[in-house]
Amino acid sequence: MERRVVFHIDVNSAFVSWSAVKILAGGGQDIRLVPSVVSGDPEDRRSIVAAKSIPCKKYGISTAEPVSMAIRKCPKLVIVRGDWEWYKKCSMNFISICRTYSPVLQQFSVDECFIEMTGRLNGKDPVAVADRLREEIKSRLGFTVNVGVGSNKLLAKMASDFEKPDKTHTLWTEEIEAKMWPLPVGDLLWVGKKTQERLTAYMVKTIGDLARLPLPALNRVVGQKFALQMHDNANGIDDSPVTTEEAEAKSYSAERTFRQDITDPKALDRELFNAACEVAHRIRRDEFYASGVSIFVKTKDFEVHSKQCTLSQPTDVTALLLNEGRRLIPTVWNGVTPLRQVGFGVFKLTHETGLQLSLFEDEKIEYYRQWDREYDARLSLRESDSRHRQRGKEKALVFSYHTGEEALAAAKESARTGRSLHFERTPLEDGTDCFSVMDQDGKTLEKHTVLKLLQ
Questions:
Q1: How many CA atoms lie within 13 A of 141 on its CB side?
Q2: Alpha-carbon distance 80 to 19, whole Å?
């Protein structure tokens, strides 16, 4: 069987590198060679560091910290205003070159992607092909990348994070023990700062320590939900495919129908807010981030007007998604025509979690995220209470959702977790979708139904 080969290509200090290309074209200095940062507004010391050059490392400058703090660490720091339109152009050109090496490409963020190279090397050394890709990007676009070559997506991603910049690294399955296990446990993909602190407290300091830790012990440290994935990752196990954008296509939406036609902008905004909260909660629950927002309104005469837009970066923050929807309202409604329905949706979804910090991220972003956490907790509690109330009324557990899409997804997930379970669609008498999860004897264990709250 042919060995699987995956490349992960990551632009070195992307925003800084892309800014440098433009500055050099205008006769300026190469800001990649000096301590420099990109921020939203260089004149505003409350602005945050969105990206930093490699020389910033010796000064302890980090992304997301205030520019004023970075200047205290390095008084000669070069500060550059971000240019998102230019960055998008650089990103598209970068992805276009990578796509010529393999059409099976998954964009992981604005400055990195995976490409499936299995069966596309034609007998050539994968490192030589990776070097050629790296050199082509540098010569044609003027910035450098790291290319990680591995046996799967996880190992390729880990390899690209080795020594930078402008390097090709391998991490094959047989190299895990020598190259990956000695690294700090915090270097493992998806291990955040708090998880690292928790693991370190249990004397799990390296990825190798984590790989050798018995799974029951890891369950007690990080919880059963994450333990298996974390343990697999530490051992280099990852069977996930490189998923093309077309295969990722998916959307979420919610609608609100008014009891009486409305013309009050505040009433419309309130219902748009409720719909956005529902949609954002659902994508957070399913671990998605959205970079597309759509809205529609339906008039009393049943005319539908819709509009959509694309965000600069994917997000799951309710406030950021809602604000985009609010900006679209004047494009679909004149403020006078009576409305009977409003809808809010998101699209262009990704499971990517290592998102770039937005250059112009709202300074209240942590407040927004805390609000989302509290909202999700309250909603989850209500859903849990609803489920417990159903227990005892019927032999089968009954779970209710806002849409058939949610009910179907939940039924699939429940059936997937049981070895002898299956599900089937059994519409109720009122026409509402119901997906029943049954055991091998045909006994109904769960019913996933659709509430009619939105009608």
A1: 27
A2: 8
Burial class of 61 by CB neighbour count within 10 A (0 to 12, 13 to 18, 19+): buried
CB atoms within 10 A of CB 261: 14
Structure tokens at 107: 């964009």
Indicate the length of the chain as a whole number: 455
Query: Do 308 and 347 contact (CB within 8 A), yes or no?
Result: yes
For residue 40, what are the CA distances in angstroms to 44, 46, 316, 319?
8, 10, 21, 19
* pLDDT (tens place) for every residue of the chain, 455 residues total: 678 999 999 999 899 999 999 999 999 999 999 999 998 776 765 677 888 999 999 999 987 788 889 999 999 999 998 888 899 899 999 999 999 999 899 888 888 999 999 988 988 999 999 999 999 999 999 999 999 999 999 999 999 999 999 999 999 999 999 999 999 999 998 787 788 988 999 999 999 999 999 989 998 888 877 888 899 999 999 988 888 754 444 678 888 888 888 999 999 999 999 999 999 998 888 878 898 999 999 888 878 899 999 887 889 999 999 999 999 999 999 999 999 899 999 988 886 544 444 444 555 777 888 888 888 887 766 554 444 444 444 455 666 655 565 667 666 666 654 444 566 666 555 555 677 777 655 677 777 776 543 33
Query: Is the separation of the CB atoms in 9 and 147 below 8 Å?
Result: yes
Q: Can you tell me the distance from the alpha carbon of 203 to that of 222, in angstroms, rounded to the nearest whole number?
A: 14
- Taking alpha carbons only, the member of 417, 376, 380, 411 closest to residue 396 is 411
> What residue ranges in 207-287 does DSSP mark as E strands?
252-262
Catalytic residue among 112, 116, 271, 446: 112
Which helix (H) or strand (E) covers residue 168, if one does? strand 168-171
Distances (CA, A) of 126 to 6, 19, 97, 182: 9, 31, 17, 25
Strand partners, 305: 297
pTM for the predicted model, two decimal places: 0.59
* Cα–Cα distance for residue pair 71/67, rounded to 1 Å: 6
Here the tokens at position 43 are 């004149």
Residue 112 known to be catalytic: yes
CB 141 within 8 A of CB 21: yes
